[in-house]
Amino acid sequence: MSNYIVLVKQVPDVSQITDNAFNPETGTLVRSRLQNVINELDAQALAFVHRMKQLSGDEEGQVVCLTMGPPMADEVLRYGLSRCADAAVLLTDRALGGADTVATANPLAYAVRKIEKELFGGKKDYFIVAGMQSVDGDTAQVPPQMAEELGIGCIAYLTDASYEDGRFTFKRIISGGSQVVASRNQPVVLTVAKYEYPLFASLAGTRRARQMQVLQWGAADIQATQVGSKGSKTQVTRVFPPGKTNRKCQQLHNPRELARALVQSYQGGGSAAAAGQGPRDYVLPGRRAHNFERTFEGLEKDNESFGILAERMRAVGIEDLYEMTDELRAQVVTSLKGQFSEKALDEMFEGMRKFEPAFKGEVWVVAEHCEGRITPATFELLGKASELARSLEVKVGVALVGSQVQPLAQELIHAGADRVYLTEHPLLAEHDPLACRKALAALIEEFLPQIVLYSATPQGRVLAPLVSYRLGCGLTADCTSLDVRDSTRKSLVGILLQTRPALGGNVMATISTVNSRSQMATARPGVMKRNPDDPKRTGEVIRREVELAAEELCMDVLATEIAHGEVNFEAKVIVGGGRGLQNRDNYEVLLNSLRNALGKKLGTEVEKGASRSAVERGFTERIRQVGQTGTAVGPKLYLALGISGAIQHMIGVANTETIVAINVDPNAPIFKMCDYYLIGNVEEIVPKLVEELEAE
Amino acid sequence: MLDNLHSIDRAGRTQVLIVGAGPAGLSCAIALKKERPEAEVVVLDKAPGLGNHNLSGAVLEPASVHRLLDSALPGWRETDQAKEVLARTVQKDDVLFLPGASGAIQLQPLIKLAGLLGLGPGQMDHKGDYIVSISRLTRWLGQIAEDLGVEVHTGFAVDSLVPGEGNSVAAGVRLVDRGLDKEGEKQPNFAPGETIWADLVVLAEGCDGLATERFVQQAGLKREAVQLYSIGVKEVVAVSEEQYRQFGDDRVVHALGYPIWTPVLGPGMFGGGLMYACGDNKIAVGMIVGLDWQENDFNPQDALVHFKNHPYVRRFIEGGKVVEAGAKMIPEGGLRAVPRDPQTGTFGKGNVLLVGDAAGFVNMLKIKGLHNALDSGRLAGEAIAGSMAEPEQAARKYTSALEESGVVSEMGRARNYRQTIARFGNLLGLPLSVLSEVLPRFEVEPDYQAMRPRHYRFKGNREFDKDTFTAMAQTEHREDQPSHLQIVDPGICLEKCLKTFKAPCITFCPAGVYEEIQGVVKPANASNCLHCKTCQRKCPFDNIRWVVPEGGGGPRYKQS
Q1: Which residue of A has its CA nearest to B9?
Q2: ipTM of this predicted structure
Q3: Is the pTM of this model over 0.90?
Q4: Which CATH superfamily is domain B14-82+134-223+338-415 in?
Q5: Under an 8 A CB cutoff, do A47 and B155 touch?
């Protein structure tokens, strides 16, 4: 028998965005105008727990739903109670508001301790189960951070469970494949990435749930140590609407138009410039034309203000900040009267005296590797890290942690690393998150880099929160843009601004790290650009040892399936198939015929890809999976057949020049993220399209 | 934790179960709970949320609301919701005749005259009525009901009634199975439809209710004349402040004629266009068309487009943005089409009552039914309050109350109106209908038999953009469930319908559910369905069956 704690979160329903949900002035989505629902993955987590109970024939195990939020979050607990939860805990208190992921994970972990003590009678044989991430935050950080606070393991990205000989095994997604694992200990945190069978509420259950008591705990009840905005390690500096897609989103009406568009797109240029082209490179204040020039601010408004101020300073004859006398300063202040408050000017002058960057140390990348190869995402991060380090005038370091991975160091140096920090241990072979986080945290603690970048991959998104929480550092998830900027008015120089999409991509948020020794972020694969390899580059390899015992691991890896085979995703044209193809036969027949026809017509190699759903349904092999958890591709032409356009898939094709989509669902999200689309049934359209391609 | 595990047995039963949380069902619940605060009353609705499946014009006769709320909720007039939901009353009431693609003739003087002479069409006067969003009204009534202690549960679809034993006609209801995949196989989360036991069941499902129709058959209720339907398609358009000001915040427009009826050349459909002020610079435009149209390539949305482009309408909405759209059927057959127990004449039977549109209490002379929904619901609630001890007497008490109230007599005056037009067509029928009260009763054919291989005269050359229309209804179903639209005999589509009529369902379905795929007519996009059920009443071979999908699907109307 096991008990279960299911973490549920109330989120705005981003699938039902109404016309009045946007602030007309700022263009940002106003969260309070959306309906609240349970986070879909948390609903799946609850169903997953129900499944685990079923599999183990466990009728005794208690299921407790836990949430933190305002009093109205009671509704998501009722969701749980009306399905399979036996009890529910609402953590609600003004003192808990304004929290980032650290200040969320911490009180939740303390609540778990209280549940263990008061509801489970101190018994430790329980699972903490949560959706992998929430649709509003999209960080995936809270569950691993809770695990770190509780000192227990975290097994993430689960898709299925089975039960044999008194033990659960879990199937989970890993970068480039899947894995079957078992937990070594209980309690353990499990996160569910996909379990498609959310429970239905029974009417009787719903009626009962309305009568049930929800336990309400405040901050004083749990005695958490890091709460509210004070306990947070990151803060949002700016929220803004996402840039308009530069995809054309043009609807085509028949296979003939489609054939023409395909040929023209391939021959002509595409519409999409690769994302991640940041603004101008940062220069430290002391290196600028005037040492009072402060126009590398995080906020555009501040850039303008400092521009005006600098102009005035030059106008009164100041060339160097250190030459500014009180008299000259007074002149400047007088001439700006009415434009800036005295307090603002004081802050600005005060900040201008700061030249030292707020953080010290190198810029690091955490290397991810699989089967003896460094992942492409790591090289992308190295490209970004080189740029940041150049601006900050520091070295680029790479943390390389694993078993027998030393041969990979050289490659990293060629790609931009000045130093490779290496820790090897046989128990690091399986990338056990607890083992990796111990080795990595030790390196960071010793060398104190100012920036640590991880790939936002299944591995990185678990490891980063474990390490950052352990070291008391802030962490921003899944960044699409990273820039060094000043916040002169707060007397901060050279801080890392971490920009990421939130609320299902409906808003962008820029985040900075506070109260931390290092600034940490995971970055989305496929967004940053790698450096060209330079085989002449040299660097240092610094080796450190780590003590690890088998008891410190959190899981046994029973089987790993990494996609193998001959797939050439470097091909100029890729045809991707999705769930809309219905079955394996369609995938094979339709994609092959189109591949041949396109190949002949365009005179180039055409490769077949697939969405995650198509792979899950067995239409093709895992190796063909394109997307965040598969391979990120960047062909000249990507043709998506029956692919709805889940964000995870679209991230993987972001670097494509031209994206063309065919889907029967007129509301398919892909239509808003492609260049050309045709609404219709793939089974009907592809044969006609092949005819057109062959006819022309 | 243990105190959370009580009352397991009680959750599967209730004293009164109301199927459908619309104006009728909720009025019933409110009136009942007012008189019997201790009664356990459960209201179920298949919509994802309160008001999501309610769409109507709508004008509402104030007396019906007042009768309900004056006793149930003293001081209701001062509530914020009342001020919001009932903010507008009709001050300007235009009835127009549109002779063609331009030009409009005011008929209001004629209506007034008919009113003075006591003739039927005189009832088509709406001055002083509330202009409401039925979706908002429903949300409000739902809240009132819940505040009184009624349990309102949305997202639960009722499949059918469970027959009772002895005197009891029904013992409860059975809910729809959930968690089946497209092929009907059980998924891991399969949840069989529960049975909810109840002493009394009220059917308030709205027009062409599935459980209602099944009950009518099984309990042997009879209609004197077949039910006739019409379909309303409607868009809520956000217009400029200037346009709205010109239109007026207290105005409704009803228009006869073009594009569904022109006197000599045809077409000769029953119905008309409408424009209602909705507040907040929004105007609802709609088109209501009797389902007995003959043209096989007709789609009510085509008519709506023509209506919107008529200069009289266009100037108020040009450049506006459609913010919500939807479609719904209206039962138009009047009193003669309301099913009754042949022995006792009751509206319902024993412990099962029929209220609102589920019964068919729409008055086509007034082109209104909402007041009757509220009144019949309220009377049902009161009748139940008086028969808790002897539930099998409820239908009888309810029927006498209806007969004593205005509902039946009002419906009685209109009883022949729609049939007269169905029988004689607009040209002759409309003038005759003035006398319909004294004319003999006509037999009419069901709507689906009206179809002819005939071309709609104003067929445009562009397809109506149903995708956008459907998107504005925010309709959604769990994709992986069996299609809730079933074609009885695919052979008929292939051999008869495609040949004779080119499968009109493909054209008339407002959500574009039906498609011809490789020569086979399929409900290919069942998840776009708006729950209007026109297909099962208009398929020329009566070859489509609408079954209830999993609860929680369908449109999400919020301001319709």
Answers
A1: A204
A2: 0.90
A3: no
A4: FAD/NAD(P)-binding domain (3.50.50.60)
A5: no
